[in-house]
Protein backbone atom coordinates (compact mmCIF):
# COMPACT_ATOMS: atom_id res chain seq x y z
CA UNK A 1 0.00 0.00 0.00
CA UNK A 2 1.29 3.48 -0.96
CA UNK A 3 1.61 5.79 1.99
CA UNK A 4 3.43 8.85 3.23
CA UNK A 5 4.04 9.27 6.92
CA UNK A 6 1.59 11.77 8.39
CA UNK A 7 2.82 13.16 11.66
CA UNK A 8 0.09 15.05 13.52
CA UNK A 9 2.74 16.58 15.75
CA UNK A 10 4.78 18.07 12.90
CA UNK A 11 4.78 21.85 12.46
CA UNK A 12 2.47 23.51 9.96
CA UNK A 13 5.10 23.91 7.21
CA UNK A 14 5.94 20.21 7.33
CA UNK A 15 2.26 19.25 7.29
CA UNK A 16 1.59 21.58 4.35
CA UNK A 17 4.48 20.01 2.45
CA UNK A 18 3.22 16.49 3.19
CA UNK A 19 -0.27 17.57 2.12
CA UNK A 20 1.19 18.92 -1.13
CA UNK A 21 2.82 15.55 -1.79
CA UNK A 22 -0.45 13.72 -1.11
CA UNK A 23 -2.29 16.14 -3.40
CA UNK A 24 0.27 15.58 -6.18
CA UNK A 25 0.03 11.81 -5.76
CA UNK A 26 -3.76 12.03 -6.01
CA UNK A 27 -3.49 14.13 -9.17
CA UNK A 28 -1.17 11.55 -10.70
CA UNK A 29 -3.56 8.73 -9.87
CA UNK A 30 -1.18 7.06 -7.44
CA UNK A 31 -3.56 7.23 -4.48
CA UNK A 32 -6.36 5.59 -6.43
CA UNK A 33 -4.15 2.63 -7.25
CA UNK A 34 -2.76 2.37 -3.75
CA UNK A 35 -4.72 4.54 -1.28
CA UNK A 36 -3.41 5.57 2.15
CA UNK A 37 -4.81 3.85 5.22
CA UNK A 38 -8.10 5.12 6.63
CA UNK A 39 -6.19 6.35 9.71
CA UNK A 40 -3.87 8.45 7.54
CA UNK A 41 -6.79 9.82 5.52
CA UNK A 42 -8.59 10.72 8.74
CA UNK A 43 -5.57 12.68 9.94
CA UNK A 44 -5.25 14.49 6.60
CA UNK A 45 -8.95 15.38 6.53
CA UNK A 46 -8.92 16.65 10.12
CA UNK A 47 -5.92 18.86 9.35
CA UNK A 48 -7.56 20.24 6.19
CA UNK A 49 -10.79 21.03 8.06
CA UNK A 50 -8.94 22.66 10.95
CA UNK A 51 -7.02 24.86 8.49
CA UNK A 52 -10.12 25.45 6.33
CA UNK A 53 -8.59 23.81 3.27
CA UNK A 54 -11.99 22.52 2.27
CA UNK A 55 -11.13 21.65 -1.34
CA UNK A 56 -8.41 19.33 -0.09
CA UNK A 57 -10.63 18.04 2.72
CA UNK A 58 -13.25 17.07 0.15
CA UNK A 59 -10.76 15.09 -1.94
CA UNK A 60 -9.36 13.10 0.96
CA UNK A 61 -12.69 12.68 2.78
CA UNK A 62 -14.02 11.14 -0.43
CA UNK A 63 -11.09 8.69 -0.47
CA UNK A 64 -11.65 8.00 3.23
CA UNK A 65 -15.34 7.15 2.85
CA UNK A 66 -14.52 5.01 -0.18
CA UNK A 67 -11.97 3.03 1.81
CA UNK A 68 -14.16 2.91 4.95
CA UNK A 69 -17.78 3.07 3.71
CA UNK A 70 -19.23 2.14 7.12
CA UNK A 71 -17.36 4.85 9.00
CA UNK A 72 -19.75 7.46 10.34
CA UNK A 73 -16.79 9.79 10.92
CA UNK A 74 -15.74 9.53 7.27
CA UNK A 75 -19.21 10.50 6.03
CA UNK A 76 -19.48 13.19 8.73
CA UNK A 77 -16.19 14.82 7.72
CA UNK A 78 -17.16 14.52 4.06
CA UNK A 79 -20.28 16.52 4.95
CA UNK A 80 -18.22 19.12 6.82
CA UNK A 81 -15.96 19.56 3.76
CA UNK A 82 -19.02 20.04 1.53
CA UNK A 83 -20.48 22.51 4.05
CA UNK A 84 -17.22 24.46 4.03
CA UNK A 85 -17.65 24.84 0.26
CA UNK A 86 -21.27 25.91 0.60
CA UNK A 87 -22.58 22.76 -1.08
CA UNK A 88 -25.46 22.36 1.35
CA UNK A 89 -27.68 19.77 -0.41
CA UNK A 90 -24.69 17.45 -0.93
CA UNK A 91 -23.61 18.04 2.67
CA UNK A 92 -27.07 17.06 3.93
CA UNK A 93 -26.91 13.82 1.94
CA UNK A 94 -23.55 13.02 3.54
CA UNK A 95 -24.85 13.83 7.03
CA UNK A 96 -27.87 11.58 6.41
CA UNK A 97 -25.54 8.69 5.57
CA UNK A 98 -23.44 9.39 8.67
CA UNK A 99 -26.58 9.54 10.82
CA UNK A 100 -27.68 6.13 9.55
CA UNK A 101 -24.40 4.78 10.89
CA UNK A 102 -24.42 6.76 14.16
CA UNK A 103 -27.80 8.32 15.01
CA UNK A 104 -26.78 9.75 18.40
CA UNK A 105 -23.60 11.71 17.56
CA UNK A 106 -24.29 15.19 18.96
CA UNK A 107 -21.71 16.95 16.76
CA UNK A 108 -23.25 15.29 13.72
CA UNK A 109 -26.74 16.45 14.71
CA UNK A 110 -25.45 19.99 15.14
CA UNK A 111 -23.63 20.08 11.79
CA UNK A 112 -26.66 18.67 10.03
CA UNK A 113 -28.77 21.32 11.77
CA UNK A 114 -26.42 24.03 10.53
CA UNK A 115 -26.69 22.68 6.97
CA UNK A 116 -30.48 22.65 7.23
CA UNK A 117 -30.44 26.21 8.53
CA UNK A 118 -28.22 27.34 5.65
CA UNK A 119 -30.59 25.57 3.23
CA UNK A 120 -33.55 27.50 4.66
CA UNK A 121 -35.11 24.47 6.35
CA UNK A 122 -35.39 26.27 9.66
CA UNK A 123 -38.08 24.21 11.39
CA UNK A 124 -36.22 20.93 10.83
CA UNK A 125 -32.90 22.58 11.77
CA UNK A 126 -34.35 23.90 15.02
CA UNK A 127 -35.74 20.48 15.92
CA UNK A 128 -32.34 18.82 15.42
CA UNK A 129 -30.49 21.53 17.35
CA UNK A 130 -32.92 21.24 20.25
CA UNK A 131 -32.40 17.45 20.27
CA UNK A 132 -28.64 17.99 20.41
CA UNK A 133 -28.98 20.49 23.26
CA UNK A 134 -31.07 18.06 25.31
CA UNK A 135 -28.13 15.68 25.42
CA UNK A 136 -25.46 18.43 25.55
CA UNK A 137 -26.93 21.69 26.91
CA UNK A 138 -23.66 23.64 26.72
CA UNK A 139 -22.72 22.60 23.18
CA UNK A 140 -21.28 25.84 21.78
CA UNK A 141 -21.98 25.22 18.08
CA UNK A 142 -25.54 24.09 18.87
CA UNK A 143 -26.22 27.23 20.91
CA UNK A 144 -24.75 29.39 18.16
CA UNK A 145 -26.86 27.68 15.50
CA UNK A 146 -29.99 28.05 17.64
CA UNK A 147 -29.27 31.76 18.02
CA UNK A 148 -28.84 32.11 14.24
CA UNK A 149 -32.19 30.43 13.61
CA UNK A 150 -33.89 32.69 16.16
CA UNK A 151 -32.27 35.66 14.44
CA UNK A 152 -33.66 34.57 11.06
CA UNK A 153 -37.09 34.14 12.64
CA UNK A 154 -36.71 37.70 13.98
CA UNK A 155 -37.13 36.49 17.54
CA UNK A 156 -34.60 39.14 18.41
CA UNK A 157 -34.78 39.14 22.20
CA UNK A 158 -34.13 35.39 22.43
CA UNK A 159 -31.31 35.55 19.88
CA UNK A 160 -29.73 38.51 21.69
CA UNK A 161 -29.72 36.68 25.03
CA UNK A 162 -28.03 33.65 23.45
CA UNK A 163 -25.41 35.71 21.61
CA UNK A 164 -24.69 37.65 24.81
CA UNK A 165 -24.13 34.35 26.60
CA UNK A 166 -21.84 33.12 23.79
CA UNK A 167 -19.67 36.24 23.92
CA UNK A 168 -18.36 34.82 27.22
CA UNK A 169 -16.97 31.82 25.32
CA UNK A 170 -13.50 32.62 24.02
CA UNK A 171 -13.74 30.22 21.08
CA UNK A 172 -16.71 32.04 19.49
CA UNK A 173 -16.57 35.44 21.19
CA UNK A 174 -15.74 37.42 18.05
CA UNK A 175 -18.35 35.72 15.86
CA UNK A 176 -20.97 35.96 18.60
CA UNK A 177 -20.30 39.66 19.11
CA UNK A 178 -20.65 40.30 15.37
CA UNK A 179 -23.99 38.50 15.31
CA UNK A 180 -25.06 40.23 18.52
CA UNK A 181 -24.33 43.61 16.97
CA UNK A 182 -26.24 42.67 13.83
CA UNK A 183 -29.25 41.35 15.77
CA UNK A 184 -29.35 44.48 17.94
CA UNK A 185 -29.40 46.54 14.74
CA UNK A 186 -32.26 44.42 13.38
CA UNK A 187 -34.13 44.99 16.62
CA UNK A 188 -33.69 48.75 16.28
CA UNK A 189 -31.35 48.99 19.27
CA UNK A 190 -28.78 50.95 17.28
CA UNK A 191 -26.76 52.49 20.12
CA UNK A 192 -26.27 49.05 21.69
CA UNK A 193 -25.27 47.63 18.30
CA UNK A 194 -22.68 50.38 17.85
CA UNK A 195 -21.30 49.64 21.32
CA UNK A 196 -20.79 45.98 20.36
CA UNK A 197 -18.83 46.94 17.25
CA UNK A 198 -16.73 49.23 19.45
CA UNK A 199 -16.00 46.30 21.79
CA UNK A 200 -14.75 44.32 18.78
CA UNK A 201 -12.52 47.25 17.84
CA UNK A 202 -11.26 47.60 21.40
CA UNK A 203 -9.85 44.09 21.05
CA UNK A 204 -8.66 44.53 17.46
CA UNK A 205 -8.48 48.14 16.22
CA UNK A 206 -7.47 46.88 12.77
CA UNK A 207 -10.59 44.80 12.12
CA UNK A 208 -11.66 46.23 8.76
CA UNK A 209 -15.01 44.43 8.82
CA UNK A 210 -15.92 45.90 12.20
CA UNK A 211 -15.10 49.42 10.96
CA UNK A 212 -17.16 48.75 7.83
CA UNK A 213 -20.16 47.43 9.76
CA UNK A 214 -19.96 50.33 12.16
CA UNK A 215 -19.99 52.64 9.13
CA UNK A 216 -23.12 50.96 7.78
CA UNK A 217 -24.75 51.40 11.17
CA UNK A 218 -23.78 55.07 11.33
CA UNK A 219 -25.28 55.59 7.85
CA UNK A 220 -28.50 53.94 9.05
CA UNK A 221 -28.54 56.39 11.97
CA UNK A 222 -28.05 59.31 9.55
CA UNK A 223 -24.60 60.04 10.99
CA UNK A 224 -22.94 60.27 7.57
CA UNK A 225 -19.77 62.03 8.68
CA UNK A 226 -19.20 59.37 11.32
CA UNK A 227 -19.82 56.70 8.70
CA UNK A 228 -17.19 58.36 6.49
CA UNK A 229 -14.61 58.06 9.27
CA UNK A 230 -15.46 54.36 9.66
CA UNK A 231 -15.28 53.59 5.93
CA UNK A 232 -12.03 55.56 5.77
CA UNK A 233 -10.56 53.32 8.45
CA UNK A 234 -11.83 50.13 6.79
CA UNK A 235 -10.35 51.08 3.41
CA UNK A 236 -7.07 52.24 4.98
CA UNK A 237 -6.68 48.92 6.81
CA UNK A 238 -7.71 46.91 3.74
CA UNK A 239 -7.11 48.93 0.53
CA UNK A 240 -8.75 46.22 -1.60
CA UNK A 241 -12.00 46.43 0.39
CA UNK A 242 -14.21 47.43 -2.55
CA UNK A 243 -17.42 47.65 -0.51
CA UNK A 244 -15.77 50.12 1.87
CA UNK A 245 -14.75 52.38 -1.02
CA UNK A 246 -18.24 52.00 -2.50
CA UNK A 247 -19.97 53.02 0.73
CA UNK A 248 -17.44 55.78 1.35
CA UNK A 249 -18.28 57.25 -2.05
CA UNK A 250 -22.00 57.02 -1.34
CA UNK A 251 -21.57 58.71 2.05
CA UNK A 252 -19.59 61.59 0.52
CA UNK A 253 -22.24 61.95 -2.19
CA UNK A 254 -24.98 62.07 0.45
CA UNK A 255 -23.41 65.12 2.11
CA UNK A 256 -22.72 66.77 -1.26
CA UNK A 257 -18.95 66.22 -1.43
CA UNK A 258 -19.05 64.95 -4.98
CA UNK A 259 -15.35 65.25 -5.82
CA UNK A 260 -14.42 63.18 -2.75
CA UNK A 261 -17.16 60.72 -3.68
CA UNK A 262 -15.67 60.35 -7.16
CA UNK A 263 -12.20 59.81 -5.68
CA UNK A 264 -13.54 57.05 -3.42
CA UNK A 265 -15.31 55.32 -6.31
CA UNK A 266 -12.11 55.48 -8.37
CA UNK A 267 -10.20 53.84 -5.50
CA UNK A 268 -12.84 51.12 -5.43
CA UNK A 269 -12.46 50.58 -9.17
CA UNK A 270 -8.71 50.30 -8.70
CA UNK A 271 -9.40 47.56 -6.14
CA UNK A 272 -11.95 45.75 -8.34
CA UNK A 273 -12.35 46.93 -11.91
CA UNK A 274 -15.03 44.29 -12.56
CA UNK A 275 -17.62 45.78 -10.17
CA UNK A 276 -20.32 47.30 -12.39
CA UNK A 277 -22.05 48.98 -9.44
CA UNK A 278 -19.10 51.15 -8.51
CA UNK A 279 -18.58 52.25 -12.14
CA UNK A 280 -22.26 53.20 -12.22
CA UNK A 281 -22.08 55.24 -9.02
CA UNK A 282 -18.98 57.03 -10.28
CA UNK A 283 -20.91 57.89 -13.43
CA UNK A 284 -23.86 59.34 -11.50
CA UNK A 285 -21.57 61.53 -9.38
CA UNK A 286 -19.68 62.80 -12.43
CA UNK A 287 -22.99 63.52 -14.16
CA UNK A 288 -24.21 65.46 -11.13
CA UNK A 289 -20.95 67.45 -11.25
CA UNK A 290 -21.71 68.34 -14.86
CA UNK A 291 -18.72 66.37 -16.18
CA UNK A 292 -20.82 64.76 -18.87
CA UNK A 293 -18.04 63.40 -21.08
CA UNK A 294 -16.37 61.67 -18.10
CA UNK A 295 -19.73 60.44 -16.84
CA UNK A 296 -20.52 58.95 -20.26
CA UNK A 297 -17.21 57.07 -20.14
CA UNK A 298 -18.06 55.69 -16.69
CA UNK A 299 -21.51 54.62 -17.89
CA UNK A 300 -19.80 52.93 -20.85
CA UNK A 301 -17.53 51.05 -18.42
CA UNK A 302 -20.65 49.94 -16.53
CA UNK A 303 -22.24 48.69 -19.73
CA UNK A 304 -19.14 46.75 -20.74
CA UNK A 305 -19.65 44.75 -17.54
CA UNK A 306 -23.46 44.77 -17.56
CA UNK A 307 -24.73 45.35 -21.12
CA UNK A 308 -28.42 45.20 -20.18
CA UNK A 309 -28.21 47.77 -17.40
CA UNK A 310 -31.17 49.98 -18.35
CA UNK A 311 -30.26 52.68 -15.81
CA UNK A 312 -26.74 52.97 -17.22
CA UNK A 313 -28.12 53.23 -20.77
CA UNK A 314 -30.51 55.93 -19.60
CA UNK A 315 -27.74 57.72 -17.70
CA UNK A 316 -25.39 57.72 -20.67
CA UNK A 317 -28.25 58.96 -22.81
CA UNK A 318 -28.82 61.93 -20.50
CA UNK A 319 -25.10 62.74 -20.68
CA UNK A 320 -25.24 62.71 -24.48
CA UNK A 321 -28.38 64.86 -24.25
CA UNK A 322 -26.55 67.39 -22.09
CA UNK A 323 -23.81 67.58 -24.74
CA UNK A 324 -26.48 68.02 -27.46
CA UNK A 325 -25.55 64.65 -28.97
CA UNK A 326 -29.20 63.89 -29.50
CA UNK A 327 -28.83 61.04 -32.01
CA UNK A 328 -26.60 59.09 -29.60
CA UNK A 329 -28.98 59.93 -26.76
CA UNK A 330 -31.97 58.51 -28.61
CA UNK A 331 -30.01 55.34 -29.43
CA UNK A 332 -29.30 54.80 -25.72
CA UNK A 333 -32.88 55.56 -24.71
CA UNK A 334 -34.10 53.04 -27.30
CA UNK A 335 -31.71 50.41 -25.91
CA UNK A 336 -32.85 51.14 -22.35
CA UNK A 337 -36.50 50.78 -23.40
CA UNK A 338 -35.78 47.41 -24.98
CA UNK A 339 -34.69 46.26 -21.52
CA UNK A 340 -37.45 48.04 -19.59
CA UNK A 341 -40.28 49.59 -21.63
CA UNK A 342 -42.14 50.69 -18.48
CA UNK A 343 -39.78 53.48 -17.40
CA UNK A 344 -41.64 56.77 -17.90
CA UNK A 345 -38.51 58.85 -17.35
CA UNK A 346 -36.79 57.23 -20.33
CA UNK A 347 -39.80 57.78 -22.58
CA UNK A 348 -39.88 61.42 -21.45
CA UNK A 349 -36.16 61.90 -22.10
CA UNK A 350 -36.54 60.21 -25.50
CA UNK A 351 -39.37 62.60 -26.34
CA UNK A 352 -37.26 65.63 -25.44
CA UNK A 353 -34.32 64.38 -27.53
CA UNK A 354 -36.58 63.71 -30.53
CA UNK A 355 -38.11 67.16 -30.08
CA UNK A 356 -34.63 68.69 -30.20
CA UNK A 357 -33.99 66.73 -33.41
CA UNK A 358 -37.26 68.23 -34.72
CA UNK A 359 -38.71 64.74 -35.08
CA UNK A 360 -42.00 65.97 -33.67
CA UNK A 361 -44.23 63.00 -34.44
CA UNK A 362 -41.85 60.66 -32.62
CA UNK A 363 -41.62 63.14 -29.76
CA UNK A 364 -45.41 63.34 -29.43
CA UNK A 365 -45.70 59.55 -29.36
CA UNK A 366 -43.03 59.28 -26.62
CA UNK A 367 -44.60 62.06 -24.52
CA UNK A 368 -47.94 60.26 -24.70
CA UNK A 369 -46.45 56.89 -23.69
CA UNK A 370 -44.66 58.56 -20.77
CA UNK A 371 -47.98 60.04 -19.64
CA UNK A 372 -49.75 56.70 -19.97
CA UNK A 373 -47.22 55.29 -17.51
CA UNK A 374 -47.11 58.38 -15.23
CA UNK A 375 -50.36 60.31 -15.84
CA UNK A 376 -49.63 62.78 -13.02
CA UNK A 377 -46.35 64.03 -14.51
CA UNK A 378 -47.37 67.65 -15.01
CA UNK A 379 -44.04 68.68 -16.56
CA UNK A 380 -44.34 66.00 -19.24
CA UNK A 381 -47.92 67.16 -19.92
CA UNK A 382 -46.70 70.73 -20.41
CA UNK A 383 -43.94 69.65 -22.80
CA UNK A 384 -46.47 67.61 -24.79
CA UNK A 385 -48.69 70.70 -24.96
CA UNK A 386 -45.86 72.81 -26.38
CA UNK A 387 -44.98 70.13 -28.94
CA UNK A 388 -48.63 69.92 -29.97
CA UNK A 389 -48.66 73.70 -30.52
CA UNK A 390 -45.70 73.41 -32.88
CA UNK A 391 -47.60 70.84 -34.98
CA UNK A 392 -50.58 73.22 -35.22
CA UNK A 393 -52.79 71.53 -32.61
CA UNK A 394 -53.39 74.81 -30.80
CA UNK A 395 -56.74 73.88 -29.24
CA UNK A 396 -55.39 70.64 -27.73
CA UNK A 397 -52.29 72.45 -26.56
CA UNK A 398 -54.26 75.19 -24.78
CA UNK A 399 -56.49 72.59 -23.15
CA UNK A 400 -53.49 70.73 -21.73
CA UNK A 401 -51.86 73.91 -20.43
CA UNK A 402 -55.16 74.91 -18.81
CA UNK A 403 -55.23 71.55 -17.00
CA UNK A 404 -51.67 72.19 -15.77
CA UNK A 405 -52.66 75.62 -14.42
CA UNK A 406 -55.70 74.17 -12.69
CA UNK A 407 -53.29 71.94 -10.83
CA UNK A 408 -50.62 74.62 -10.24
CA UNK A 409 -52.10 78.10 -10.79
CA UNK A 410 -48.85 80.03 -10.11
CA UNK A 411 -46.49 77.80 -12.09
CA UNK A 412 -44.36 80.23 -14.09
CA UNK A 413 -43.45 77.71 -16.79
CA UNK A 414 -47.10 76.92 -17.52
CA UNK A 415 -48.12 80.59 -17.44
CA UNK A 416 -45.35 81.46 -19.88
CA UNK A 417 -46.25 78.48 -22.09
CA UNK A 418 -49.88 79.64 -22.20
CA UNK A 419 -48.74 83.09 -23.32
CA UNK A 420 -46.47 81.50 -25.92
CA UNK A 421 -49.20 79.33 -27.44
CA UNK A 422 -51.65 82.24 -27.40
CA UNK A 423 -48.93 84.22 -29.19
CA UNK A 424 -48.67 81.52 -31.84
CA UNK A 425 -52.46 81.79 -32.24
CA UNK A 426 -52.06 85.60 -32.62
CA UNK A 427 -54.23 86.17 -29.53
CA UNK A 428 -51.80 88.73 -28.18
CA UNK A 429 -54.23 90.56 -25.93
CA UNK A 430 -55.10 87.27 -24.19
CA UNK A 431 -51.40 86.50 -23.74
CA UNK A 432 -50.66 89.67 -21.73
CA UNK A 433 -52.15 88.66 -18.33
CA UNK A 434 -50.37 85.30 -18.50
CA UNK A 435 -47.07 87.06 -19.16
CA UNK A 436 -47.65 89.38 -16.19
CA UNK A 437 -48.39 86.44 -13.91
CA UNK A 438 -45.37 84.50 -15.23
CA UNK A 439 -43.02 87.46 -14.54
CA UNK A 440 -44.47 87.84 -11.03
CA UNK A 441 -44.00 84.14 -10.29
CA UNK A 442 -40.47 84.01 -11.77
CA UNK A 443 -38.72 87.29 -12.69
CA UNK A 444 -36.25 85.40 -14.91
CA UNK A 445 -39.12 84.81 -17.32
CA UNK A 446 -38.89 88.51 -18.27
CA UNK A 447 -35.36 87.96 -19.56
CA UNK A 448 -36.53 84.85 -21.44
CA UNK A 449 -39.34 86.91 -22.95
CA UNK A 450 -37.04 89.77 -24.01
CA UNK A 451 -34.55 87.38 -25.61
CA UNK A 452 -36.84 84.93 -27.38
CA UNK A 453 -40.49 85.88 -27.67
CA UNK A 454 -40.04 87.80 -30.91
CA UNK A 455 -39.37 84.46 -32.64
CA UNK A 456 -42.88 83.42 -31.58
CA UNK A 457 -44.93 86.55 -32.42
CA UNK A 458 -42.76 88.49 -34.86
CA UNK A 459 -41.47 92.07 -34.54
CA UNK A 460 -44.86 93.80 -34.65
CA UNK A 461 -46.31 91.39 -32.13
CA UNK A 462 -43.33 91.94 -29.86
CA UNK A 463 -43.73 95.71 -30.06
CA UNK A 464 -47.39 95.37 -29.12
CA UNK A 465 -46.65 93.14 -26.14
CA UNK A 466 -43.86 95.32 -24.82
CA UNK A 467 -46.17 98.36 -24.89
CA UNK A 468 -48.98 96.37 -23.24
CA UNK A 469 -46.64 95.23 -20.45
CA UNK A 470 -45.51 98.74 -19.53
Share of helical residues: over 70%
- What about the largest sheet? none
Question: Globular, elongated, flat, extended or rod-shaped: what is the shape?
Answer: elongated
Class by helix and strand content? mainly alpha
| Radius of gyration, CA atoms, in whole angstroms | 34 Å
The CATH topology of the domain at 376-470 corresponds to: Serine Threonine Protein Phosphatase 5, Tetratricopeptide repeat
User: CATH homologous superfamily of the domain at 376-470?
Assistant: Tetratricopeptide repeat domain
Question: Beta-strand percentage?
Answer: under 5%
Order of helices and strands: HHHHHHHHHHHHHHHHHHHHHHHHHHHH
Multimeric state: single chain
Task: Describe this protein with a few key phrases.
single chain, 470 residues, mainly alpha, Serine Threonine Protein Phosphatase 5, Tetratricopeptide repeat, 28 helices
Plain-language structure description:
The radius of gyration is 34 Å and the shape is elongated. The protein has 28 helices and no strands. The N and C termini lie far apart (about 110 Å). It has a domain at about 375-470: Alpha Horseshoe (Serine Threonine Protein Phosphatase 5, Tetratricopeptide repeat). With about 475 residues, it is an all-alpha fold.
Gist of the model:
By secondary structure, this protein is mainly α. The protein has helices at 12-27, 30-33, 38-50, 54-67, 72-84, 88-101, 106-118, 122-135, 140-152, 156-166, 173-186, 190-203, 208-220, 224-237, 242-254, 258-271, 276-288, 292-305, 310-322, 326-339, 344-356, 360-373, 378-390, 394-407, 412-424, 428-441, 444-452, 454-468. α5 runs antiparallel to α6.
Amino acid sequence: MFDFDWDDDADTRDLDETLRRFRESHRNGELKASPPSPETLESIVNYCIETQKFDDALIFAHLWKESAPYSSDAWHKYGIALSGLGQWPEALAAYDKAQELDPIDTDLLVNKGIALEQSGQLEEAYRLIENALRSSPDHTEALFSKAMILQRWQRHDEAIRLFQYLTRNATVEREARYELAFTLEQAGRLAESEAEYQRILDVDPFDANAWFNRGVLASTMGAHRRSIRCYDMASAIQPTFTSAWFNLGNAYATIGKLDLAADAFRQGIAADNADAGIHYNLATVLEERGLFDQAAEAYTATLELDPDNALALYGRGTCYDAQELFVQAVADYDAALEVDPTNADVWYARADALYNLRRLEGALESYRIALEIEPNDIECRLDLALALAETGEIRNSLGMITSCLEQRPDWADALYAMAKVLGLARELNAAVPYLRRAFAADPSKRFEFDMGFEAVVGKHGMDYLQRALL
